[in-house]
């Protein structure tokens, strides 16, 4: 899978959770290709600072207050993008949480049978339901794009195939709530891509890799910029690119 579309002039991209780490680097990468990027963040001060950091680099960046815990923010996002831009070319569902451990480096013993329901619900609310809800709200604007792209930031930890294989590198990383939400998000990718198969919109899941972010932890082997590459690649796919897939750095991953 090669990315041949490098000129994003006139394109508009909305990235959730984009005030730091992978989200901010994804926004930077898309802006460097010419897109106007909208930084979605739940903290106004941090979101404004992130957008300004890109503008200082000469990039087109805007900030939009967006808290996935607030369903009303979906309509606010729709209204903002519709009134200011009239369409949305790229949606990167980047925001996510892990409540079972401070970071991926801290995933310990499998305690699925003891997981509090509150943690399971909280994780699904942000990592799955909010992603589906926001995408549904913004889809009419994506339909107005000549080549809409939806990128769902998943994780290899959502792969049931690898979790069931004792020889796989993630076999022991059984953070049930987080992993299950990424599996569910992958299912959303497959189902939405099928619904949109006869349109120009492409929907794919991205595994960024194990990245040195707040979520990934300090032991991760990849830097933040590396972690943004898969999202940028899927956000800029050519018209003959794939849809309904699960990828890392252009390579398909097992469901």
TrEMBL record:
Known InterPro entries for this protein?
CBR1-like, NAD(P)-bd_dom_sf, Sc_DH/Rdtase_CS, SDR_fam
Instruction: Print the keywords alphabetically.
Output: NADP, Oxidoreductase
CDD domains for this protein: carb_red_PTCR-like_SDR_c (cd05324)
Q: Which domain of life is it from?
A: Bacteria
> In the UniProt record, does the keyword NADP occur?
yes
> Which family does this protein fall into?
Belongs to the short-chain dehydrogenases/reductases (SDR) family.
Name of the protein in its database record = SDR family oxidoreductase
């Amino acid at each position: 899978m090669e990315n041949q579309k490098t000129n994003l002039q006139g394109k508009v991209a909305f990235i959730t959770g984009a005030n730091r780490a992978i989200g901010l680097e994804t926004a930077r990468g898309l802006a460097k290709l010419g897109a106007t990027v909208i930084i979605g963040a739940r903290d106004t001060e941090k979101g404004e600072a992130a957008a300004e950091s890109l503008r200082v680099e000469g990039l087109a960046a805007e900030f939009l207050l967006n808290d996935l815990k607030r369903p009303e923010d979906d309509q606010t996002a729709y209204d903002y993008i519709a009134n200011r831009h009239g369409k949305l070319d790229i949606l990167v569902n980047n925001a996510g949480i892990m409540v079972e451990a401070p970071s991926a480096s801290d995933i310990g013993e499998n305690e699925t049978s003891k997981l509090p329901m509150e943690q399971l619900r909280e994780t699904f609310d942000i990592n799955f339901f909010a992603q589906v809800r926001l995408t549904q709200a913004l889809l009419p604007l994506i339909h107005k794009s000549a080549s809409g792209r939806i990128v769902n930031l998943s994780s290899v930890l959502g792969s049931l195939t690898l979790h069931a294989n004792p020889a796989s590198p993630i076999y022991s990383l059984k953070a049930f709530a987080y992993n299950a939400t990424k599996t569910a998000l992958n299912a959303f990718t497959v189902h939405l891509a099928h619904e949109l198969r006869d349109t120009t919109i492409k929907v794919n899941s991205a595994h960024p890799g194990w990245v040195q972010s707040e979520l990934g932890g300090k032991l991760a082997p990849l830097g933040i910029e590396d972690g943004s590459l898969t999202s940028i690649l899927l956000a800029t796919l050519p018209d003959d690119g794939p849809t309904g897939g699960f990828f890392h750095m252009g390579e398909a991953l097992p469901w």
